[in-house]
UniProtKB/TrEMBL annotation:
Stated family: Belongs to the SMP-30/CGR1 family.
Protein name as it appears in the record: SMP-30/Gluconolactonase/LRE-like region domain-containing protein
Cofactor or coenzyme needed: Zn(2+)
Amino acids binding substrate: 99, 101
Organism per entry: Actinobaculum massiliense ACS-171-V-Col2
Annotated positions binding a divalent metal cation: 17, 150, 197
Gene3D superfamilies from the UniProt entry: TolB, C-terminal domain (2.120.10.30)
Domain called SMP-30/Gluconolactonase/LRE-like region: residue spans: 16-256
GO biological process: L-ascorbic acid biosynthetic process
Record's cofactor remark: Binds 1 divalent metal cation per subunit.
GO molecular function terms noted in the UniProt entry: calcium ion binding; gluconolactonase activity
Record-linked Pfam families: SGL
Catalytic center residues: 197 (proton donor/acceptor)
Keyword terms of this UniProt record: Metal-binding, Zinc
Length: 285
């Protein structure tokens, strides 16, 4: 079993982000966020590119009835099949000063989609939002004072949610009630000055966090102990981490070239995990 990350694709993206595994499209899919494109890696390791027509492709999730949900610059779009172009269904805001960034589909089938300002400065700190959108496309603001909304994921027993507002340099934790509402936000663990980016939670409740600008993947226990820390060789732009594959034990990391010009940037990296993933929740809408 691989005990360190290996680069498994060439440089295929500029700002690779948001990896997610689904049999719906035959393997791993991730976004080239600032190009608005979806990239799919099949089991052979070959990567194909799908131009969505959107300016931004923030994150992607499978749909329960086939196709996919795409978060675009300012809203959500749907495609009816895995490789069709999406059609816009919901606009969350109109200001050109902001864009969507990261998100997920929660265990109740709601979409979490967070925003960030294009220009991050003293004036824009705390001005972005995190939305929760129902399968009927009814949006609700869950957090209205974030700066760089990033990874969010839930514990296997559905009692906790973990969240990164990257600018705070910490991973936060929420309690989750029976209806899936977030409450009692507090600090889970600091990132030692690094930038916590995408995250995922495995089937034993361990939290995997990509530390951007550091080239690291850190694994926490539910008790906030650091279980493992992996350094990807020669890169710094680690943006997100997910688990998937046939047995759920493949770990995939996306690396951006936005602030990293090394040869391993813009690629997907891989290793094996002793603990499998939780199932990916498809969007029921």
């Amino acid at each position: 079993m691989a005990e360190k990350f290996e680069q498994i694709t060439p440089q295929v993206a500029f700002h690779a982000e948001g990896p997610v595994w689904s049999e719906e499209w035959g393997g791993l899919r991730f976004v080239d966020m600032l190009a608005g494109d979806l990239l799919t890696m099949d089991p052979s390791g070959s990567v194909s590119r799908l131009e969505t027509g959107a300016r931004i492709a923030a994150f992607v999730r499978p749909r329960a009835g086939g196709g996919y949900l795409l978060a675009t610059e300012r809203g959500l779009a749907l495609a009816d099949s895995a490789f069709a172009a999406p059609e816009q269904r919901l606009e969350l805001f109109t200001s050109p000063a902001y864009r969507l960034n990261e998100g997920t589909v929660d265990p109740w089938g709601y979409v979490y989609a967070g925003s960030m300002p294009y220009q991050r400065n003293e004036e824009t700190v705390g001005t972005a939002k995190l939305w929760r959108v129902s399968p009927d496309f009814e949006p609700q603001v869950m957090l209205d004072a974030v700066t760089t909304s990033n990874g969010i994921a839930f514990s296997p027993d559905l009692s906790r949610a973990y969240y990164n507002d990257t600018t705070t340099r910490v991973t936060d934790i929420f309690d989750v009630d029976a209806a899936g509402n977030l409450c009692n936000r507090r600090q889970f663990h600091g990132a030692d000055g690094f930038s916590p980016d995408g995250l995922t939670v495995d089937s034993e409740g361990n939290i995997w966090v990509a530390l951007n600008r550091a080239g690291k993947i850190r694994v926490y226990s539910p008790q906030a102990e650091v279980l493992q820390e992996y350094q990807l060789a020669g890169v710094t732009g680690t943006t997100a981490v997910t688990l998937g594959g046939a047995d759920g034990r493949d770990v995939f990391v996306t690396v951006s070239r936005e602030n990293d010009d090394s040869k391993g940037a813009g690629a997907v990296w891989w290793m094996r995990s002793p603990t499998p993933a939780q199932p990916v929740v498809p969007f029921p809408g």
